[in-house]
Amino acid sequence: xxxxxxxxxxxxxxxxxxxxxxxxxxxxxxxxxxxxxxxxxxxxxxxxxxxxxxxxxxxxxxxxxxxxxxxxxxxxxxxxxxxxxxxxxxxxxxxxxxxxxxxxxxxxxxxxxxxxxxxxxxxxxxxxxxxxxxxxxxxxxxxxxxxxxxxxxxxxxxxxxxxxxxxxxxxxxxxxxxxxxxxxxxxxxxxxxxxxxxxxxxxxxxxxxxxxxxxxxxxxxxxxxxxxxxxxxxxxxxxxxxxxxxxxxxxxxxxxxxxxxxxxxxxxxxxxxxxxxxxxxxxxxxxxxxxxxxxxxxxxxxxxxxxxxxxxxxxxxxxxxxxxxxxxxxxxxxxxxxxxxxxxxxxxxxxxxxxxxxxxxxxxxxxxxxxxxxxxxxxxxxxxxxxxxxxxxxxxxxxxxxxxxxxxxxxxxxxxxxxxxxxxxxxxxxxxxxxxxx
Amino acid sequence: xxxxxxxxxxxxxxxxxxxxxxxxxxxxxxxxxxxxxxxxxxxxxxxxxxxxxxxxxxxxxxxxxxxxxxxxxxxxxxxxxxxxxxxxxxxxxxxxxxxxxxxxxxxxxxxxxxxxxxxxxxxxxxxxxxxxxxxxxxxxxxxxxxxxxxxxxxxxxxxxxxxxxxxxxxxxxxxxxxxxxxxxxxxxxxxxxxxxxxxxxxxxxxxxxxxxxxxxxxxxxxxxxxxxxxxxxxxxxxxxxxxxxxxxxxxxxxxxxxxxxxxxxxxxxxxxxxxxxxxxxxxxxxxxxxxxx
Amino acid sequence: xxxxxxxxxxxxxxxxxxxxxxxxxxxxxxxxxxxxxxxxxxxxxxxxxxxxxxxxxxxxxxxxxxxxxxxxxxxxxxxxxxxxxxxxxxxxxxxxxxxxxxxxxxxxxxxxxxxxxxxxxxxxxxxxxxxxxxxxxxxxxxxxxxxxxxxxxxxxxxxxxxxxxxxxxxxxxxxxxxxxxxxxxxxxxxxxxxxxxxxxxxxxxxxxxxxxxxxxxxxxxxxxxxxxxxxxxxxxxxxxxxxxxxxxxxxxxxxxxxxxxxxxxxxxxxxxxxxxxxxxxx
Lengths: 438, 293, 282
What we know:
The complex is a heterotrimer. By secondary structure, chain A is α/β, with parallel strands linked by helices.
């Protein structure tokens, strides 16, 4: 074991290149993450810059596999008594992390204890709201945020003589036209079926997904997404699935290649899809806000975020927390946020960074990079659009996807499927409520 | 069954069994015990709050129609996999048992899939039948089949069964071949002299004599389908669409994922262990019989 | 021999070739895909003949790895799989043969209970107790280590039973003879019993090596570090990439590489393999 760790440390030192020689008493801060490829480089650079900027602390980033793997590893490590200081957890793990009082150290407390200057008002509320209590106390630090946007294949739309749709009825009509003109297998589609068609749809139209402000105000939340709007939307998808005007592309983002290959000319997925589109699409593209139903009062509201945030794990000495707090302050720096935004395609989390990127003309030739920000800041968030906090969200999403699949396969009506999804989901939420540390 | 000639030593035998005993106790009995304990508890993911809930996890399970569906589905899968794989393997073994030229070559070409790992099998098959890029899927659509295992549960289940059966062909083939070769030729010759046609000879003589082998393989195949299909399911369908490919083992895995519902997952483990012990018991009763060919 | 008419013989040949085709087709497709361009595959335009990317793809797969999800060259994954398979095979044989020896050739208190304790583990795969085992390995700080990968899979009785049955068939005269030579229990084991067990050990080794190499769920759970991934886990990570395009040629090349060692073992050591299979399952 020791040998392995030594090997890993050496390898790490080699990949990172030896930074400025550290002072004698350097405190290590472990940071577990799930970033690959170019985004992994961003993480390594952030750690190096921080380590070079001061000499008391050393941030050590470790890649732990995909989001689920990382969280699994973190939970296991905590149970085995050697959790990292900082762990990157995807948004659906938020409730699990939050319920674990004692396993995590809330960010607002960390900052106060460490005596770091910390003003929650400098952050974009649409982003931090997701990770804060109803009182506005920040629990985890938003690191890589994205939102749902509609990716459009401009060349194909032009060929079929279709305008970029703004509302759902327009989108259905456009998809129909595209389907009949050269896209028989897929007029439009999307990834993350529940995120797009339940979670975002509800927030975007200011209707509740669950009671108690979607769970933000308490674990005794009940699911409520079997209302008329969501049922109507799913019914439409079921109808269009029949002739492949809409074609289901799976629960996660495995179907995204169908957009870049040109098969699906309209595709709803994360704004973080940008890097792949840019690298692989051989056509003109853009990303526009999600469609809405114009007959719903107040729509569009604002979208909610996806992605991940940094959780600080509990039970570490105060001295080490000081270093973590310093690191979070370092990450909040405007220029650094602009760098993260530009290098990774994820959203800036401070108002200042957003303004600065705008002032630099960053969105001039790439307007689609601003789309998710415009969606998030479209209106002041409401009870229904601050974010979600549901326990066992990973399993919940699986259950919802199962039911949606049943509807799309014609085994259940849309109403039956959503009723079942709500009922099964509520059972799981009650189970979670029982285990949540009060 | 006792050896007459033995050694006398006080400590040596204990030293000899110690390594295996230690490993079995630490990595088998301890986790099994943990599973039993865990199945009476309700815990959050981080193990911070623990409530003792007696049989709640089991009660929840047996109240949950999804669990019964998974049980039925697991047995249906197992049976479908066993029957399809066994019949195809038997056909091949009967052919390979004939005095043909190149029968050794045939054998070599038929046994190697045994060595292919379940996740690899899953990847191979998903690739051939992937709705948007699979070669076979393309032909299926060309002849008018609406092939979409992402949404059609029955198609997804078929996919899993096909892939799992494919992997089992070689194993079954080998055992059938061994079974066929153990049948005394004189019996077959006697039947031939009586004027029985080859087909009839097979059904009246060979098949009954093979029945112990068939039964044995049925049990082994069912156990295989219980556990080893996990890798195939995980790489092909992840239990979807809907829950149409969630088997018992897959459920143990997915319910415990991310500390989601460890109590229920443990309860399912305990039930599975009991099932397997029963299956093993059946097999051993049968192995006793198998010796008396 | 029962007579075979000519026509029947042709039918038999024909059926066997169909069987071989069924068995080989998926693998053929995998190999073909590994030599083609990813864009063709992704758009569903793959041909049924090999493409020209063989060297390029395999070089990238073995020495570089994918650009997105696994970030680890497959060569390294194969090494991990190999170490794991060898540890499992050798470990299981080693601990089983000595405990079987103790149980057969000695009388000692608790002999039968110990035998039964080991015997019950025969059929319960690690999958059914996966999370508790995971926790124990975590408590022992064995996550991401070869020990953690191999030890839980060594905990099973198949090999012990096999050796026990084999030792029962060894004539007692051999023991008497070595006693007369003045050999103690360890000498007898080393000089007489081990050489006799050679074929059995080899046969078992083939089976266990394949078993170890093909492990999936366990390594998937307990390895979190890139450099500890086994090839089976790597494949799964490659097809669940967050990249827009799964790099199919690399996935398929990995699949082909993952098949090579165990298939090679089966084909080359066919006799031992068949024997090991039929013996262990009895």
